[in-house]
Amino acid sequence: MAPAPSTSAQRLGPCEHGTTLKREDKTCYVGCLTAGRKSHEVRRLYASFRYQAQTWSHSRRVVAKVEWHPGELDPRVGFLVTNLCRPPERVVAFYNQRGTAEQWIREGKNAAKWTRLSCRSMKANAVRLQLHALAYNLANFFRTLVLPDDVERWSLTTLREKVVKIGAKVVAHARYTVFQMAEVAVPRDLFRRILAMIDELRPRQVARC
Questions:
Q1: pLDDT in tens, 148-168
Q2: Which of the chain's ends, N or C, has fewer CB atoms near its CB within 10 Å?
Q3: Does the reported pTM lie above 0.85?
């Protein structure tokens, strides 16, 4: 379950309308939220209970997370089966971090191609993997430092295809050179803002008296 934007969080206990939460009654989660007043922020509630499916040899701990988003008719309900002994909120946060790490690994495979280890020796493949990881980190720094807010969530694949590997027609004049690029990939204003943010990273010389 991915984290949602900033919001209040509550622990899910007895239902507001008086019905106690039981493992057999999962519809109570919905009732707990819909019975409350309308809110303009995301509401999060958590619960923990024991449950045993027919194919399980014993009952297991289940952590439930319910999110109510403004403007949505039904709440978002998710369940995690876990053996962690942490509070429900910390269990959800732990698995969210694990999911984020898996997304980074997937992004590295797609954008940096760091699974292409075709060398014959283990040492050569280790060096090649480190170079791929270095390229990924440099691209991630680039994304963090020089992308405007409206495109800061671009994947590295999108960033590579639209900014780095974009084709251009070079027109050379006596005093300047012009790069003519199609605005289909990156609009002129967006590209200008990216170049301005890159220029701001350059160390400035301090004027001496």
A1: 888 878 888 888 888 777 788
A2: C
A3: no
